[in-house]
Amino acid sequence: MEMALVLGLVALALVDSTSLGTLVIPLWLLMSPERPPVRRMVAYLGAIAGFYFAVGVLVLLTASTGIAAAGSVLRGPVALGVQLALGVGLFAISWRFDSRAKAGGGGGRVTRWRAKALDAQSSGSGVAVLAVSAGALEVVTMLPYLAAIGLMISSGLSAAVSAAALAGYCVVMVLPACLLVLARTVAHTRVEPWLARADGFLSRHADSALGWVLGIAGFLIARDAAVQLFFR
């Protein structure tokens, strides 16, 4: 692999490391009142990295078997109709994510995920399910990851090298969360105030931020389908 490609993949992985599933929820897990639940953190980060890796392998296999070349089918009226419905649905769902509206009513969806993450009784399997749920929600917005896969495909890497690159991408993606775990473990008293401030900010704005992401993604998906269906 060329150094330029490696640096590009690392940069995209670091962008991906700031998402809801790879940074926000791990931060919530670290806000447990006792020492960091390392086993739960390992289960969570392993699950979300594994989910991303599985999605990446699926996309690479799809491209390598020629399904991605079936552009005429994917840009046909039926497929575009499904795309339009998906975009409109995402845009509609985004309005249900409003931090201000939920503030007095027990919290929104993301806040309820936070409560589950902070539940001291949560098992390893429970946080693994939480990780896969967050990853599935982010599928439509994982643009850095899809861009990284596009770089691998355009570079003509072999299947083995591509799989190794995907694995490395996923490791870099969860690395900041791993560093947070280490920091809270070895410097609990010093980092806890910073974590508390970050947690407060995210708790107030997480629902709205996720709503904006879903709304923008839905608009762009629906707009592309509408242009193809009605204006070309």
TrEMBL record:
Spans traversing the lipid bilayer: 41-61, 73-95, 127-147, 159-183, 209-231
InterPro entries linked: Gap/Sap
A Pfam family that the UniProt record links to this protein: SfLAP
Protein name in the entry: GAP family protein
Keyword hit for Transmembrane: yes
Keywords attached to this entry: Membrane, Transmembrane, Transmembrane helix
Lineage summary: Bacteria, Bacillati, Actinomycetota, Actinomycetes, Mycobacteriales
